[in-house]
Fold:
Amino acid sequence: MSYMFYNCNNLNNLNLSSFETENVVNLNAMFFDCNKLNGLDLSSFNTKNVVNMRSMFWGCKNLSELDLLSFDTKRVVNMSYMFYKCENLKKLSLSSFDTSNVTGMSGMFYNCNNLISLDLSSFDTKNVNTMESLFHYFKNLDNLNLSSFNTSNVKE
Structure:
């Protein structure tokens, strides 16, 4: 399903409730540059086999809220640029994310400049080796919990 809705610039609403995703392994850039998308319900997505979520929501500038609590991320290796340029995102629910196998988090939240608070206390980052620009351009952020971050394997 990588690049499935790539550059769908005028797409406002998207109903994916009938999607069967239990066999999907790659969600790379699935909603890349869907910059007018203002609502997205992914609660029916079965992500138990996904290994790549790189750039999944890249450039979704109109999304203000994204609830990913139903995502099973225990097999995911790459989350780099996942929310890159989600400029209007105000609420992001990631407390259920299992990041124990993730190695790439570069630019994951780059330019999410309307996020005020982000709780990443459940993130297990012991295997992450890239974190450059992870929180680049967070001009409104006033609360960030990184108490669980282990950066012993980070190289950049």
Notes: DSSP finds no helices and six strands in the chain. The chain has one domain: 1-156. The radius of gyration is 14 Å. The mean pLDDT is 94.
